[in-house]
Amino acid sequence: MSRGELIVRFEKVSFGYRHTNPLLTEVDFTIRRGAKLTLMGQNGAGKSTIFQLVTGAIKPDSGLIHIAPDLTTAVSRQVVSRDQREFTVREFFEKCFENKVYDIDPKINAVLKVVNLKAEHERKIKSFSGGQQARLLLASALIQDPDLLLLDEPTNNLDKAGIAHLTDFLINYKKSCIVISHDADFLNAFTEGVLYLSVYTKKIEQYAGNYFNVVADISARIEKENRKNAMLAKEIQQKKEQANKFAFKGGQMRLVAKRMRDLAAELEEEKVDIRKEDKTIRHFTIPFQADLVGVILRITSYTAVRNHKTVTREADISLHKNNRLLLMGPNGTGKTTLLESIALGTSKGAVVTSGVRIGYYRQDFSMLNFEDTVYDSLSCVMEKLIEEDLRAAAANFLITGDLIRTKIGNLSEGQKGLVALARLVLQKPGLLVLDEPTNHMNFRHIPVIAEALNKYQGALVLVSHVPEFVQKIRIDEVLDLEK
């Protein structure tokens, strides 16, 4: 195949019509050989579904998907599936191929070098940190050397060095690539076009240009649509007022009144539906557990990983109300392990005061029961179930309609994150333990989440590799596990 040749074409593709809310309606777009594109859209719009349709993992309800002959594809997923967590590194990579690959170890070593990760082949996947698992997921796609590389949130959990390494790789990548990501700087470094999936029209809009240019273009269109709607609303109101005025006069004036109402109806049809993709979660507050005084969390020692060995270090950190602690360090230094030990009360050197409710946000969402519905997941953290409060909290995070009765396991990763945040609001914790709370999130949500954390009056322990998010939060203490 020569560069620029069409390798994928969607022709009036629809999907999801067996469900209440279909995801795609007569979608059309093309991908050319050598293209590097971003796939944008709101959490739950159907971006990962597009990937599954491209690979043939699922079939469209209607329409045609044209794939170039002999085109190979590989997907770097967002998270390691639960059934693969017990795999060794070798077993994990063996599962990437339909047929047995003999002498796979050299291939594994080569691809791990590309993602800048050292790993023994007998080591279990579950023993790796979130950032290290992100590198393994990326490597699982690269080892297949596909014609079309599909990356689903590849920077989630990656530290600065990992993102820089991946960016450099993609800039020099000679084949085709489509990336789902909310990391604007990362995307702008290598993408040359955007596929924009609208959750309202359920169609793809295809744009040329870098990520920032496309976002600016979309924002300008939305502003123009808002101005048009405002002008039409004013004119509609005038026609209705005129119609009421003439209707009272009787006779021929009633015909004029009817014409005014017809004009108002015609103007209503001209109004543009504002894109639901561009809805941001509402500003929210995480209530603080009342009646807590004194120290909420005291850390006197902790364990970290240095040169693949666990070391114990002393510390002197006490968190009271309104105190915020940031844990720092590259992938694999033990940040997630420390957070988990604090949240579960298994750390000898980190003690949470008795009676303090802990709001725990895990990067892999394993604190959620995937068999629960959203409603069940929210109601189980409330001291007293008040239906109105539950639904109000859910609506703040764009969880409305049938979504509240959907199983957690059927949500997108971004929607799972929104459920996890809604749980914190309803739980009213005294201590927040947050592990990468902006992973999978639409970039418009990030300032709102930062604002809520700044207003939170309890104690907070945070891990995040997103600088623009951390910079928005007042941090009182930093614990760097690398130092």
Give the helices and strands, then pairings.
Layout: E1 6-15, E2 24-32, E3 36-40, H1 47-55, E4 62-67, E5 73-76, H2 89-94, H3 105-114, H4 130-142, E6 148-152, H5 160-171, E7 176-180, H6 184-188, E8 193-197, E9 204-208, H7 211-247, H8 253-270, E10 297-306, E11 309-319, E12 324-328, H9 335-344, E13 350-352, E14 358-361, H10 374-379, H11 387-396, H12 413-427, E15 431-435, H13 446-455, E16 459-463, H14 467-470, E17 477-480
Helix pairs in contact: 3-4, 7-8, 11-12
InterPro entries: AAA+_ATPase, ABC_transporter-like_ATP-bd, ABC_transporter-like_CS, ABCF, P-loop_NTPase
Organism: Candidatus Sungbacteria bacterium RIFCSPHIGHO2_01_FULL_47_32
Coiled coil: 215-280
Explain how this protein is built.
This is ABC transporter domain-containing protein. InterPro entries: AAA+_ATPase, ABC_transporter-like_ATP-bd, ABC_transporter-like_CS, ABCF, P-loop_NTPase. GO terms for molecular function: ATP binding; ATP hydrolysis activity. Keywords: ATP-binding, Coiled coil, Nucleotide-binding, Repeat. Pfam families: ABC_tran. This protein has 483 residues and is of the alpha/beta class. It has three domains: 6-215, P-loop containing nucleotide triphosphate hydrolases (Rossmann fold, 3-Layer(aba) Sandwich), CATH 3.40.50; 222-277; 297-480, P-loop containing nucleotide triphosphate hydrolases (Rossmann fold, 3-Layer(aba) Sandwich), CATH 3.40.50.300. The chain is built from 14 helices and 17 strands. It has helices at residues 47-55, 89-94, 105-114, 130-142, 160-171, 184-188, 211-247, 253-270, 335-344, 374-379, 387-396, 413-427, 446-455, 467-470, and strands at residues 6-15, 24-32, 36-40, 62-67, 73-76, 148-152, 176-180, 193-197, 204-208, 297-306, 309-319, 324-328, 350-352, 358-361, 431-435, 459-463, 477-480. The strands form four sheets. A six-stranded mixed beta sheet has the order 5-6-7-3-8-9, sandwiched between helices. α3 (105-114) crosses α4, α7 packs antiparallel against α8 (253-270) and α11 (387-396) packs across α12. The radius of gyration is 26 Å and the shape is globular. The mean pLDDT is 86.
